[in-house]
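dumping the sequnces here before i forget
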Amino acid sequence: EDQVTQSPEALRLQEGESSSLNCSYTVSGLRGLFWYRQDPGKGPEFLFTLYSAGEEKEKERLKATLTKKESFLHITAPKPEDSATYLCAVQGHDYKLSFGAGTTVTVRA
Amino acid sequence: DSGVTQTPKHLITATGQRVTLRCSPRSGDLSVYWYQQSLDQGLQFLIQYYNGEERAKGNILERFSAQQFPDLHSELNLSSLELGDSALYFCASSVGLLGVAGNTIYFGEGSWLTVV
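..and the predicted 3d for all of it:
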């Protein structure tokens, strides 16, 4: 069974304090690794898809990287509006998308 | 706005009752997915349909069922409701099957179900 573990569970940052979130995974035949952002009471909002080890993608202050066992979401110089829960998900050979529990990021001004 | 529409947004019902949650996928999307999110379990995959046919099944209870209609909208039916079924139910859609480069799933805003 595919497994996704995200760490830390919660992260409190000062505005401008860069940090990284980790997503460790085990999957049978990785088809893709996805990052989503979720605000309280809202649906997950798509951020990135990574398909192979070594791939990197960037969007504003966020950068996602992928290795064979884990993915990192780097937040550079975060702002309060970056506060959210960040979800990692993997898709295996059976097309199912399995989510981690998420990392809740709080950025203080 | 992801383009995925879910109704109702909020629903309160009693134990033992049956409810139907409705989802309209993004225009052009053939795949529909249903997920359950509760406080203690995170996002759990329930079921996926592709162009009207069941494609993948997750941890969906026998009391729950779903279908995708010819116009591609989908319904999730929850019956014999229990207190533990209280959760946020998300529908998501994608153009085709995941795993194809550029094919991503987009989530709706969810339906809050409270069973009392």
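Chain B touches chain A through 28 residues (CB under 8 Å).
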